[in-house]
Amino acid sequence: MKILVASDIHGSLSAAYALMTAVDRLGAEKLLLLGDLYYHGARNPLPEGYDPRGVAELLNQNAHRIIAVRGNCDSDVDLTVSDFEMAKEAWLFLGGKTIYATHGDRYDVDHLPKGKVDLLLYGHYHTGFIVERGGVLVANPGSTSLPKGGTKPSFLLLDEKEIKLYSLTGEIIAEHAL
Length: 178
What we know:
The chain is of the alpha/beta class. The chain has helices spanning 13-26, 52-61, 76-81, and strands spanning 3-6, 30-33, 66-69, 86-87, 89-94, 97-102, 119-122, 128-133, 136-141, 154-158, 162-167, 172-177. β11 (162-167) and β12 form a beta hairpin. It starts with a strand and ends with a strand.
């Protein structure tokens, strides 16, 4: 199974369209969203193509394949316009690996969750990477619309064997075996 992982769309309809195109192009069966879907946040500029309602409509058309966790910019109102659940965290199991997904405002590369976790996925910081830390593989998909720290708009693709960080335009930035 292929799972595309994205975070921090922040209401950019153009980024959401590019993301859904990548889902289809890469053959992902599931789309794991790590929060901050609609609102741009008080610290961020308006992203290109800002249209939170349009993003909600596009994501709702794909609700059958979405797993989502709630980000710090996601409000109760956002839950009412989404045809999919937005939990605080998600546990997934893929290829014998235990995956913990969260937004990143609680756990991150420097604050790992306790217990058996093979892969920690989180967004929040708008910078994509894949690293190993304390016996745990840690990956951040970056932001599809508001990348920071000189990074490109990006997402992750994972399957039973590997995880890859892609730019939104399709370039492989980093990869690691699972």
